[in-house]
């Protein structure tokens, strides 16, 4: 493990800030980071890519950080440290999304405050969901073959079964902030209606956003011509989109998943792909990265993207700016943006 770098001695009443990032993460997310901005506090940095679990635990116990800034490479907080009188951490400023590799519920019980990238990349995920939806409706999977066959003909249109989004019944499986962003983006396309289902979300909340709630998952799938899954994974919904639920989608419906791969029974999805009954677009999978010989890679008519619905290239710095602004707010005693509650953490994948 590389030693703590850029360590600055603590001042009276100062926070102890630990930037726990890989050099790549720091360059990608925090190109504008200037350590001297935090000169009134103790600060240091550590390369999490070169730090093993034992070294990480030792740094936490010896350096006593009160604030940790971290990202995808986040190391789990040792449970024995979290439960000990030595636990010093008060705030985790997470630059990226899911926190499950870093935290447990017990940390929240110790009064820990947490932020992540919040809603700062909702638009990129929503755009990608629409990209997959429109591409599937227009038969993008077969475009290259149509070109090889000699350009535009009515036969190509028939073979590709090109369709429009306007006038389609759209279902949203999930109704978090990403689903709400998708719903807003759908409005100019003038769908026949937008419905949603998410376990535990009150119907009145869905209605307040101009979307019609469904009482059960089967109802949502049975009334949608375009179904976009953007639900978080929980123990209760793992594999919930099984063969029975998928069969509720009418022939030639669109199924897009930008949520979590394990919500869907992948064997059932492969069976649907083999039949050609549905138009399927996926950005998330049971195994990531996908092995080259994975069945989904060769399934006919399936449009795959390599889990890139998240930040676009220019959005990485935006996420970093959001994190740094939250860090400044925390140090100044101001309200935080996108604070993660214990309830929201429980719904994370």
Topology:
Layout: E1 16-21, H1 23-29, E2 42-47, H2 53-63, E3 67-70, H3 79-82, E4 91-94, H4 105-109, E5 113-115, H5 122-137, H6 143-148, H7 154-160, E6 169-173, H8 177-186, E7 193-197, H9 203-208, E8 212-213, H10 217-222, E9 226-229, H11 243-246, E10 254-257, H12 266-275, E11 279-282, H13 295-298, E12 302-304, H14 315-332, H15 342-346
Parallel strand pairs: 1-2, 1-3, 3-4, 4-5, 6-7, 6-9, 7-8, 9-10, 10-11, 11-12
Helix pairs in contact: 5-8
Q: How would you explain this protein's 3D organization?
A:
- With 349 residues, this protein is an alpha/beta fold.
- It folds into two domains: 16-120 and 314-346, NAD(P)-binding Rossmann-like Domain (Rossmann fold); 122-304, Rossmann fold (3-Layer(aba) Sandwich).
- It has 15 helices and twelve strands.
- It has helices spanning 23-29, 53-63, 79-82, 105-109, 122-137, 143-148, 154-160, 177-186, 203-208, 217-222, 243-246, 266-275, 295-298, 315-332, 342-346, and strands at residues 16-21, 42-47, 67-70, 91-94, 113-115, 169-173, 193-197, 212-213, 226-229, 254-257, 279-282, 302-304.
- The strands form two sheets. The protein has a seven-stranded parallel sheet. Strands 2-1-3-4-5 form a five-stranded parallel sheet.
The separation of the N and C termini measures: 29 Å
Strand and helix order: EHEHEHEHEHHHEHEHEHEHEHEHEHH
Stretches where pLDDT falls below 50 for ≥5 residues?
Answer: none
The helicity comes to 25-40%
Number of helical segments? Answer: 15
What can be said about the biggest beta sheet?
7 strands, parallel
Structural class: alpha/beta
| Chain-averaged pLDDT | 92
Whole-angstrom Rg: 23 Å
User: Reading side by side through the largest sheet, how are the strands ordered?
Assistant: 8-7-6-9-10-11-12
CATH architecture of the largest domain: 3-Layer(aba) Sandwich
Strand tally is: 12
**Share of β-strand residues:** 5-15%
**CATH level 4 superfamily of the largest domain:** NAD(P)-binding Rossmann-like Domain
User: What's the level 1 CATH class of the largest domain?
Assistant: Alpha Beta
Indicate the overall shape. Answer: elongated
Reported by name, the CATH topology of the largest domain is Rossmann fold
Count of folded domains: 2
């Amino acid at each position: 493990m590389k030693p703590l770098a850029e360590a600055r001695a603590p001042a009276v009443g100062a926070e102890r800030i630990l930037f726990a990032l890989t050099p790549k993460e720091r360059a990608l997310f925090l190109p504008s980071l200037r350590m001297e901005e935090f000169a009134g506090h103790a600060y240091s940095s550590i390369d999490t890519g070169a730090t093993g679990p034992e070294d990480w635990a030792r740094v936490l116990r010896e350096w006593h950080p009160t604030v940790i800034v971290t990202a995808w490479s986040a190391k789990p907080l040792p449970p024995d440290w979290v439960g000990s009188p030595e636990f010093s951490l008060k705030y985790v400023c997470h630059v990226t999304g899911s926190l499950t590799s870093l935290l447990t519920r017990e940390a929240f019980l110790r009064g820990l405050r947490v932020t992540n990238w919040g809603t700062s990349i909702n638009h990129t995920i929503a755009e990608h969901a629409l990209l997959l939806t429109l591409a599937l409706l227009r038969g993008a999977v077969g475009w290259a073959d149509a070109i090889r066959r000699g350009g535009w003909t009515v036969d190509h249109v028939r073979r590709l079964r090109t369709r429009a989004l306007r006038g389609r019944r759209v279902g949203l499986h999930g109704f978090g902030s990403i689903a709400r962003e998708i719903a807003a983006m759908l409005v100019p396309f003038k769908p026949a209606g937008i419905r949603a289902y998410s376990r535990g979300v009150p119907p009145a909340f869905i209605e307040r956003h101009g979307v019609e709630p469904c009482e059960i998952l089967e109802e949502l799938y049975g009334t949608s011509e375009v179904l976009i899954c953007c639900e978080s994974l929980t123990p209760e919904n793992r594999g919930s989109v099984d063969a029975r639920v998928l069969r509720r989608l009418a022939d030639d419906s669109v199924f897009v998943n930008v949520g979590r791969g394990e919500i869907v029974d992948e064997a059932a999805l492969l069976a649907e792909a083999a039949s050609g009954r549905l138009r399927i677009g996926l950005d998330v999978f049971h195994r990531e990265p996908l092995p080259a010989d994975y069945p989904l890679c060769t399934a006919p008519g399936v449009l795959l993207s390599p889990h890139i619905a998240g930040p676009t290239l220019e959005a990485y710095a935006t996420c970093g700016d959001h994190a740094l602004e939250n860090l400044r707010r925390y140090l100044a005693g101001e309200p935080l943006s996108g604070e993660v509650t214990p309830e929201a953490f429980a719904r994370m994948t």
